[in-house]
Amino acid sequence: MRTSLVVKTTAGADAPERCSQAFTVAALGVSSGLDVSLWLTGESAWYALPGRAEGFSLPEAAPLQDLLAAVLAGGRVTLCTQCAARRGIGEGDVLEGVRVAGSQAFLAEVMADGVQALVY
């Protein structure tokens, strides 16, 4: 059984270090061969939109768009349904490969056997 990692981030430009840490851990998980699911909630919801990750900058950190691309290429990225709705983001607005799902899907992922969950 492959180990799964669920990373949930609520941080965006309002808390850039926490945001970067979440994306970094998720991308590292993918490169380590883990089954990774990155959940974008709260202010990180904006990074489900095209071009938004490119506007993120944090000294000494990997570019957010590269980390996001790594997770999209080898894992899953989910945008919280309620967080999207509060920001006026529709399913047709998000990057290719990003799904929009709610708490029930999150709970199912974190309660599965062999899952490690981290919240940033």
UniProtKB/TrEMBL annotation:
Cited InterPro entries: DsrEFH-like, Sulphur_relay_DsrE/F-like
One Pfam assignment: DsrE
Record protein name field: Sulfur reduction protein DsrE
